[in-house]
Amino acid sequence: MPKITIDGQTIEVAEGTTILKAAGQAGIDIPHLCYHPAFPPEGSCRLCLVEIEGAPKLELACATVVREGMVVKTQSEKVKEARRSVLEFLLAEHPLDCPICDKAGECQLQDYYELYGLFESRYRETKEKKEKLVRLGRHLLLDRERCIQCTRCVRFLLEITRTGELGVFERGIKSIIGFYEGEPVDNNYSGNLAEICPVGAITDLDFRFKTRRWLLDSRPSLCPLCSRNCAINIEFHRGLARIELGQRVFRIRSRENPQVNQYWICDLGRYSYRYLDENRIDRPYQLVNGRRMNLSWEKLFILLSEKIRALRIRKKTSRIVLVLNSALTNEELFLMRRLFLEELAVSRFIFCDPPEEKGDSFLLTAERVPNRRGAEKIGFDVKSREEVLREDKIDLLLIFAAHLPEKMPLNWLSPLASQIGAKFLFASQESKLSQLVDFVAPVTPVAEKAGSFINVDGLMQSFEAALNPWGESRPEWEILVNLAREIPVNYRYFGRFNSPRAIREAMAEEKLIMSERP
Amino acid sequence: MNEKVLSRQFDLPHLHKIDVYLENGGYEAVRKALRLRPEEIVEEVKKASLRGRGGAGFPAGIKWSFVPRVDKPKYLCVNADEGEPGTFKDRYIMSHNPHLLIEGIIITSYAVGIHLAFIYIRGEYEKIAQRLEKAIEEARNKGFLGRNILGTGFDLEVVVHRGAGAYICGEETALLESLEGKRGHPRLKPPFPASVGLFQMPTVINNVETVANVPLIILNGADWFLSLGQPKDGGTRLFSVSGMVERPGVYELPVGTPLRKIIFDYAGGVKNGRKLKAVIPGGMSAPILLPEEIDVPMDCESVMKRGSMLGSAAIIVIDETVPIIEVLSKVTKFYSHESCGQCTPCRIGTSWIHKIVKRMASGQGRKDDLKEIERLASQIKGRTLCPLGDAAALPILAIVNKFRAELEAMLPQ
């Protein structure tokens, strides 16, 4: 392992490490624009030039591999001057329209100017005029004046999606990013281009002019829209004093996870965030002859537990049917099993997962639920077994629909509805289903709760809540714990579960949990 | 010495036809070379101090010896892009004596273990490309190319590839990209083409004139070749002389012939007896020389010591009637137009400088324009991905430096 000295700090790094990465390990930031860790070094922006003792010229930090005894300076006058010079060149031909640019606040060019530039412009010539509104694809716009020719977008499409829609056209100062006529960017990963563009050249139509970056908070979560469980950041508005915003979540961005999605997410995961704010159920309610009557959660627990208690005393819990789905977390599925299947001896359950759709060969899987592996591991048969519906009378139907009430295959419910005693729906979205049941209670979607999933490759990942619960929504695990207390069922066991983490610990004790690495 | 070596037979009618070429001793070098061991050829070329004729002047034999002796495909790319302004010597070789180049290609390929060679020729040389293709066909028919050449078991195919008209494609790694069917953008080095080149395979890239010299070295020996030129820079060079001289043209002269002698003795001196103002000694990328600086032997090291470079040995003569701003403007226009646009300093720097120069030329100069040009050029120099940045910055700096008074006179005081 070569030992090198960077800015007086001696560190040992793995063979083959570049100066840029070695500096990163030492906590030293070397500015760069064209370099992206997902691709081989490009070396074209020239911003990462550093001084190596004994070398006649400044060398690229992104492309130069460390050698034993190398002495690197990233803060010498020569380096600082070279950085200023690259920034000066880039800004000379830049429109400087930051006030109306969506990237402002997270623009690397802007940030680096603040950190390493801070010069007065000496450019007195006419800037190049280029197109500022090129539609690159369904979700993307290109501003050619803002483009700095880092070619990250071109390389992403060549190396990651291998669709190669974009290329560099023209030459020199006239160079532009473009595509062949009639063949714009059209793949399920296009949204990543706006994310990897270090400046505001490629912007996202979905986000365009909606808000400003610095008004948004960003919290980590997992994408629940297929069984890949990509790491994401959910970005939401903190809200404004006195003005109520119609929207909390403004965008989903990818979060680096080398084991699952590297740096990318698919467009389905990126652009389907509206369910988090739209059509949400605010509070529990009862439907009496089609009329809505709000309930408190306490009242709902009392009503539900009374029904369960009554069936339990008559030893008729076989007349309870559970409708489950694989969007529930491991912790929730574990509690479902303990509470209903084991304590209450409910044997009739049916998984109503949305039907599979076409996956692609990269991240998106055919399963449009996040946790089928978890459900199987916890011991559920996730195949839809509609025959359980006909085994006996149904006195109590509990539908756990999460964020999927529109997508679950529940066609069987409508003809059966009138024959079922009491029907409870736990879902985060309003849907036609709400009209078919007697009680509706709001649950938190994945973004608003903690838990864990096992993805399509068997990798378990835990996550925390990124957003506060909508209205009175509660996570399913909390509902189950409350129910156990209310019925009551073995409250010594269920009573200690004050968090998904506590449930995970119990699962571990019972050898039902999997480590976070497969 | 006034004896031509490389171009000795170029005046023979129909030399480009293989029968004429064979009647005049053609392909004897190939016959001789294929009886030698490849290492012997590399050693001989090394000993001859054959330096690259394209511009960088890198010793060819040493370049060849960088190619690893590994069992994977290796390629030869003959750089016939000839884009350096002022240079017109490679076309002279290819149009007059394509078989000499093919002979050189066969010997080079045999020496390095190559079975597929490309001639990357600039798109404008359409007729010459056709002539090369015809010559390759002739050579194949005579058994000098193809399978089992002259019964030695050595195989070689040669493919002519026409460029699409970008100066940058003469830069060796951009040439490789272009040859691979991609946009002609230079690659990061290392790795160097000798280890990772065309289609990721070890590749030798040599200029036309370099390769064309190889048969002469094989026939006459390294000592002979070395004796023609300088101790570290053997042979002759084809000097392309253009501009304000009485007899512009290609002159084959020994390496080390003084620049003054080439201009005044061979090219007939400055046109119409006018006064010499400046000389660009090695193609547009070479820093300009003043009349008092032209007593320089034209070999790589001597010209470099004079603060310029021999480059492609293209001599551009400028007389007293030419305003220096016109020269500067030609230089800056060329480089801003030909910058490939890949890296920041070259893409924006060359254009920025050209915009200033254009403004100056139109009488809109500002007081600090020269200082700005110098500052910007030094921000390009040594900071770009490929040598084009230096090729642009150095001549600009030299012109501003050496003709400061004339340029300053254009600016407001």
How would you characterize the overall build of this protein?
The complex is a heterodimer of chains A (about 525) and B (about 425). With about 525 residues, chain A is an alpha+beta fold. In chain A, about 25% of the residues lie in helices and about 20% in strands. In chain A, a hairpin with a 2-residue loop joins strand 14 (about 285-290) and strand 15. In chain A, helix 7 (about 295-315) crosses helix 11 (about 475-485) and helix 8 (about 330-345) crosses helix 13 (about 500-510). The relative contact order of chain A is 0.09. Chain B folds into three domains: about 20-230, Rossmann fold (3-Layer(aba) Sandwich); about 235-320, Roll (Ubiquitin-like (UB roll)), CATH 3.10.20.600; about 325-410, de novo design (two linked rop proteins). In chain B, a hairpin with a 4-residue loop joins strand 3 and strand 4. In chain B, helix 5 (about 90-95) packs across helix 6, helix 9 packs across helix 10 (about 220-230) and helix 13 packs antiparallel against helix 16. The model of chain B has no long low-confidence stretch (mean pLDDT about 95). Chains A and B meet through helix 2 of A and helix 13 and helix 14 of B.
Pick out its properties.
A: 518 residues; alpha+beta; Ubiquitin-like (UB roll); Alpha-Beta Plaits; Rossmann fold; elongated; B: 413 residues; alpha/beta; de novo design (two linked rop proteins); 3 domains; four-stranded mixed sheet; 17 helices; 9 strands; globular
Total individual domains of chain A: 3
Q: Architecture of the largest domain in chain B in CATH?
A: 3-Layer(aba) Sandwich
- CATH topological fold name of the largest domain in chain A: Rossmann fold
Estimate what percentage of residues of chain B fall within beta strands.
Answer: 5-15%
CATH class of the largest domain in chain B: Alpha Beta
Helix content of chain B: 40-55%
Overall tally of domains of chain B = 3
Provide the CATH topology of the largest domain in chain B.
Rossmann fold
Shape of chain B: globular
Q: Which word captures the global form of chain A?
A: elongated
- The level 1 CATH classification of the largest domain in chain A is Alpha Beta
Computed CA radius of gyration of chain B, to the nearest angstrom: 22 Å
Please state the second-level CATH architecture of the largest domain in chain A: 3-Layer(aba) Sandwich
Q: What is the β-strand count of chain A? A: 22
Q: Give the number of helices of chain B.
A: 17
Biggest β-sheet: strands ordered side by side in the sheet of chain A: 15-14-20-19-18-16-17
Quaternary organization: heterodimer
